[in-house]
Amino acid sequence: MDQAALAATEVIAIGDSLARLRIAVTYLWRHHRLPQLDRPQRFTEFVQHRKLFDRDPRLPAFSDKVRAKQLVADRVGADWITPTLWQGTTLPKQPPWPRPFVVKSRHGCNQRAFVRDGSEDWDAIRRSCDGWLAQPYGLWLDEWLYGQIPRGVLVEPFIGCNGLLPLDYKLYVFGGKVSVIQVHLERETRHRWMLFDRNWQWVSTKSRSDNLAPPVSLDRMIGAAETLAQGFDFVRIDFYEVQGQPRFGEMTFYPGSGLDPFDPPELDLMLGQLWSNARG
């Protein structure tokens, strides 16, 4: 090996060591324990393992909010997709799209703005988009796949009802089979979530007082999720229900970056075992 190649190898090794250290420290901060990165057991540890070692090119492809729409439409049908009103890198000085609509980043998570009635500060939204594009997403948490997605912005119709966000159904798919469904309610006001199994039986202890009924399209969501998840040991696939019809949201390979605690904590081990079994 020549000196240039040797130097490059050493740089990569140093980078990998720093990533392991960052991940370990961040995990310790959130979970109050060090992660088992080489032999993960908990779900949250498997997420860290994926961040360190999994460079499957399908991960960024399915996480790209523009590209994923065509990939998903090809597999389950175009009727699952929310149409794109616009995509690019510089929002126009005045929004030409019918309200309400959503502005979101193509390459990141939780980067979005809602325009409901036109009273919103459009200049502030444009500045926010400039900020999304100025910085690489996922770098500080070592979320490799986001750095592989072209930075951009897209605009979609708002699919909630009466200005309220729809319920968010997040299906955890291990080895091509939906095992649990996480439901998020009132994300802008009194955000909370709960966990069910695929038969809509309670798994988590949170928010049982909500007495939430399953979506009427649950079976269709499960079928679509299992179709989309083929070939992955784990992926979380998110859906909404709009007037009784299911709608694809996104595919996530690092849920919560593996930093969100589970309630009860035993769920972390249970989901980790499902991931381990899916890997064979």
Q: Could you characterize what this model shows?
A:
With 280 residues, the chain is α+β, with helices and mostly antiparallel strands. The chain folds into three domains: 3-50, no CATH class; 58-79 and 163-252, ATP-grasp fold, B domain (D-amino Acid Aminotransferase, Chain A, domain 1); 86-157. Strands 7-6-5-8-9 form a five-stranded antiparallel β-sheet. A four-stranded antiparallel β-sheet has the order 1-4-2-3, covered by helices on one side. The chain is globular and about 50 Å long. The chain is built from seven helices and nine strands, in the order ααααβββαββββαββα. Residues 3-14 have low confidence and may be disordered.
- Tally of helical segments: 7
Overall SS class: alpha+beta
Overall average residue pLDDT? 92
Number of E-state strands: 9
Sequence stretches where pLDDT stays below 50 over 5 or more residues = 3-14
CATH superfamily of the largest domain: ATP-grasp fold, B domain
Biggest beta sheet attributes: 5 strands, antiparallel
CATH architecture of the largest domain: 2-Layer Sandwich
Instruction: Output the helix-strand order.
Output: HHHHEEEHEEEEHEEH
Task: Specify Rg, calculated over alpha carbons.
Answer: 20 Å
Question: Largest sheet, order of strands side by side?
Answer: 7-6-5-8-9
- Percent range for helical residues? 25-40%
CATH-derived topology of the largest domain: D-amino Acid Aminotransferase, Chain A, domain 1
**How much strand?**
15-25%
Give the CA-based shape. globular
End-to-end CA span: 36 Å
